[in-house]
Amino acid sequence: xxxxxxxxxxxxxxxxxxxxxxxxxxxxxxxxxxxxxxxxxxxxxxxxxxxxxxxxxxxxxxxxxxxxxxxxxxxxxxxxxxxxxxxxxxxxxxxxxxxxxxxxxxxxxxxxxxxxxxxxxxxxxxxxxxxxxxxxxxxxxxxxxxxxxxxxxxxxxxxxxxxxxxxxxxxxxxxxxxxxxxxxxxxxxxxxxxxxxxxxxxxxxxxxxxxxxxxxxxxxxxxxxxxxxxxxxxxxxxxxxxxxxxxxxxxxxxxxxxxxxxxxxxxxxxx
Amino acid sequence: xxxxxxxxxxxxxxxxxxxxxxxxxxxxxxxxxxxxxxxxxxxxxxxxxxxxxxxxxxxxxxxxxxxxxxxxxxxxxxxxxxxxxxxxxxxxxxxxxxxxxxxxxxxxxxxxxxxxxxxxxxxxxxxxxxxxxxxxxxxxxxxxxxxxxxxxxxxxxxxxxxxxxxxxxxxxxxxxxxxxxxxxxxxxxxxxxxxxxxxxxxxxxxxxxxxxxxxx
Lengths: 271, 216
Known about the structure:
The complex is a heterodimer. By secondary structure, chain A is α/β, with parallel strands linked by helices. Chain A has helices at about 15-30, 45-50, 60-65, 70-75, 100-110, 125-135, 145-160, 175-180, 190-195, 205-215, 225-240, 255-260; strands at about 5-10, 35-40, 75, 85, 115-120, 140-145, 170-175, 200-205. Chain A is globular and about 55 Å long. By secondary structure, chain B is mostly beta strands. The chains are: A alpha/beta, B mainly beta.
């Protein structure tokens, strides 16, 4: 059975599209699904770094589209998790190197051999976003609880609707429960009320995201951190399971401080 | 002028002038189709001196799309009179479910929008506008008549855009950054945007825009 193409987008930059794509890819692959992640951010590729595959790139998406490489040659299989593959973006070209028809063809070829094709969309509403949106069968919008990010997400939702795609789902990223409690940050309910789409996950702010990105080993690999567990739950929801939304603790709460005493300060393991 | 039934663009004469109806389909294909039709030999005579309005089908025109449309029409010396982001359809059961439609109310067409108007979307209408949904931050509704919002208003609304200072704006929650009625502009107070106080309306009283509880 052919796989599902999911585009992960946001409008605003820096809200965590690439981190989300990498972690959902890992979380789905850990659940036995064959996943291909496409980095559609041509010219500003990042997904390879987050996934820790940057030194294995030989061919990229533009090479495939322009016929210099076959899809199989360009795909990089993650050695830690063989179900996970990545198609890197080209770093030396720009968004116009690929058009929506080519993206459709590419996604079509990939879905024949996978369960999920995750497309990491570039920020913005221009050509690159349209490329990423064209093959989407499902759309996941990532936003942070900030007024500017929510406004941009709203804009993107409007454009997804205009493209006659199914109603997008929302991941609320980098939520800080302590700030919400002090009414210094928009709550989940505030964001949902404005955007009026279904929530598929909440990822709390977690320093582990940054250390894991630097190490090239997404938090979803071990699902021990708060964020890692959150991505695990999102993967389950994408697979159609009904997973309740937990209430997050204040990050500075006593439990968190307790846990940090037990955690090896050097991060243990590594890539 | 006869049009090909498979065409994405329909051109027809109405009592008010010439109406160009843009059908569903990819925007560039629609524009190309429009160009082809305008390039026909008898088109120039058909359009001469006519008041031309465009129905944009089930889509909101983005700014660049509007410009592109005007450019295509200008190439054939056609001046764009009005654009309506909706298709007025013959009454049928399914019409009630459409996201946007107009309703004849005496002499004025009321534009009904059954959806949330999102950031970056602009509604322009010559007449009153009714929204069954929210008007979000970054969205714009410009109407020559009243604007009634059965939802929250967080975007910019200009009622009475033709200069009618008697126009009113009503919403279940009135939280816009700015309100315009006729020739008046009011900014939202600087202090924190308060939580919903229930249905409210904005109107011009004694030369300034005031917000009061919505009494019907």
